[in-house]
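Troubleshooting: if your tokenizer reports a length mismatch, compare against these two reference records.
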Amino acid sequence: MMKSISALGVFLVTIALTGITAHAAFSAVDKVISVPGADQAQLSEKVKTWAGMYGRSNNVDDKTGVVVVDGEVSYPSPPVDRIQYTILFEMKNKIEGNKVAVTFDKVMLKSPVNYVSSDANERMESKTSAVENGKDTAAADKVLSRITGNLEAFLLGKSDTASTLFKCADCAVLSTSEGELGEHMKIHSGGESPPAK
């Protein structure tokens, strides 16, 4: 018993000393992107352009060189699973010289308005919750890595190798495939509309 309590104490102290927080689950998508030949002003403009194409909103602090992009992306699962869910995120792009440090904060799981529960056959209002379980963490890592990959390809001018992103023209939700966007479009009353790239 004392051994277990001691091990737990060591674990908690290790967490406190290393600064691990709820955000740590998404550290795999933190990345520094180097853009050879670019200066800070050019890079800032390119990040702002990308943010306008793929973000729901963005905020620029020219003094700190940080471009904050708020967005939402489809949960990466087959339609029979949780495709109706989305992942909300805040993407921080700190620009220094010819580098962009990308980090994600406020990563949340969102269910849509009037989601029909398949278990209870009932309607529920939209809700947002923390990403807590392993499956949701892996899903968030997957889509946020795709978003970072798309930004990197855009900044390096390699659109042919970009991780494809599609944006809903109605609500600005991002999807990583046309199939996911098609599933997302089913929630709009107007039916499916052509994907916006």
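Reference record two:
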Amino acid sequence: MTWHRAAAPLLLGFGILATLAREVLLGSTFGTQRDLELFRVAFGLPNMLGQTLAPAFVGVTLPLLVAARQAGDAEYRRVRALLTRFALVATSSVCLVLVVAAPWLAVWMAPGFSAEESARTASQLRWLSLVFFALGLSFPLRARLNHHGVFWPGASTSLTLSLGIAIACGLGWRVDGTTTGLVMASVLAAWCVLAFHGAAVQRAGRSTANEVESISEVDADAVPLRMRALSLAVLGASLYQLTQAIPRFLDRGFASQEPGALAALEYSFNVLTAPGILFGTSLVMLAFPSFARFAARGEARHGFRALGKWFILAVGAAGIVTLACQIAPQTLVRLLYERGEFGQDDVTMTSDILRWQAWGLPAMVASMGLAQALLGLRQLRLLLLVGVVRIVVRVLALQALVPRFGPSGLGAAYFATEAVSTLLLVIILWRVTRSGPPPVGLPPAQDPARAPAS
């Protein structure tokens, strides 16, 4: 294990601390005020796009970079340039959609907001589209760094964004008494992320000490990668990641109908995902490059056996956190948040959601690793199927549980969704790998490694 690999979980740990510090400062500064809920809705979409599409982009392009390196320096440079051009075009297009469709997106994400609140949310969303623009441009840089065995820039993304918001809160950066200062801080932090990735790529390019071993075999008949094939592959993986994120927006939509519930939902979710990110993302970042090489040789089952102990360790650690949340949820919430504007009513609402959400934490960690393995096997259609099932389960659970149990129904719906999707992923992976080398999930004409020249 190089220091680059060791730095990834350490930075994720620091990112968790920064996220908790951010939430504590937001709680003491804003409590569950409506103004904070507007910012959370506006920030949620560009941040979600940046954080969830990165694994999709890296998951698809890392095997392509490995194969291109094996093919020679000229092919490696061509693929790198193609990835950069693709990221620029795709990111610019998404940002344009965010700016133009901001009013409709604000209403869709928070139907409980008034017309004036939706307008303010749309204005903030337009500015925060710059957050996704910076993060999107870092995707090809992150893939190249992962290929070199350098993981710390990607692991520091959440840390940097959280620190930007935390510093703005700590300095009392409230422009006109609103969250405008948080919007400005978020944009600046996202561009710092891009700068970190650019500096790391330059440093890695000057040294070959961290070069990752290429896969042992590359198909000599493989046709060079083209933009159309790359677009189809990234689109398929991205659609799956988006289906993973849509349930979060459904939660916010239901929560926006009761003042304070949306903010309490976010406070609870960030407490829960702190260990989830540490366990799940560390597992994916450190294990996926090795698993990708097993999968490339048609030895996915050997890859599962080699990495199984780390998977069990991550899920078991998540289970310990779940038990702690069941024993003393109010004590935990009170310890973290109860100060300033965050009062006893906020503690009760947040802990009620947290108690149910915590049951889904082990399943969340498990599904992160299982989904990335399925992505490495190029089973994009099956991943999309899992994503659609998640959305359907979440909609049904929200409609059944929230009217009956109130805000705590949000947590119960989360648990139901994670449990069903994890069980489905286990069944799919067992069926895909039980008969030897896994089938490729894309038709030959769409497989990036065998795309026809155009």
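Descriptive notes for reference record two:
- Residues 226 and 453 are 7 Å apart (CA to CA).
- Confidence is low (pLDDT under 50) at residues 208-223, 436-454.
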